[in-house]
């Protein structure tokens, strides 16, 4: 008997999702604003990843607003495939005026996460903001996705998010304005998204569901929100990930600075006033009074990001 044929994946959506557009429209009603120059003075931001790309830009933006930064990443030595190490990131943060703790570790290791939080408290004495930035991506279809790659996405994306917040939570509870910000998308269950990369979708939606759950579990005592880019972002991840378009996608992508500017606007909001939302960078900035986004680059037509 012949083996059954696996049908081809559905076509990727090419138009914005009406359900997501309706969700995004609510951002205009949130009390978001561009942060003051010293908005994070005396505050500490704890981040998974951060050696390059969006995470590094968020760390730099927070440092410019006065925050002390703790980052944990595996990349201690240069990799010819991707730019940057945790040490080059730390130097960039120092040049931006921030104090920084670079901690070499693996978000999948419970001991590393515990050690990272303990080292941050020893260095800075507090934690006010947690940014779940570390992420793994593989858009391979189910028949050919190696289980070790599946495990990698689940362990870094969903489990890593839970692990870092759980470890930092006793210290967040002592902050006068604690925040959790997770870089993950709105939960979009349209078949065109679920049917193209169900494993990656599960790992990223897990990050979102955890964060929205914390917004309710903590009752607003710790603000918990998600942030996702409206367009693809010009990073090494986009350039190197099969299925995202490579160099062509980079030309039609905005720079990571748009995510950084949106992130600091969210993190500067007062406790509980912006809580339990899946936000999109462009919407956050428009709500904060930024009308012209052309400075963030990208050739028209801009590439709409996954899940929107």
Automatic annotation (TrEMBL):
<dbReference type="InterPro" id="IPR051935">
    <property type="entry name" value="HSDL2"/>
</dbReference>
<dbReference type="InterPro" id="IPR036291">
    <property type="entry name" value="NAD(P)-bd_dom_sf"/>
</dbReference>
<dbReference type="Pfam" id="PF00106">
    <property type="entry name" value="adh_short"/>
</dbReference>
<dbReference type="InterPro" id="IPR002347">
    <property type="entry name" value="SDR_fam"/>
</dbReference>
<protein>
    <submittedName>
        <fullName>NAD(P)-dependent dehydrogenase (Short-subunit alcohol dehydrogenase family)</fullName>
    </submittedName>
</protein>
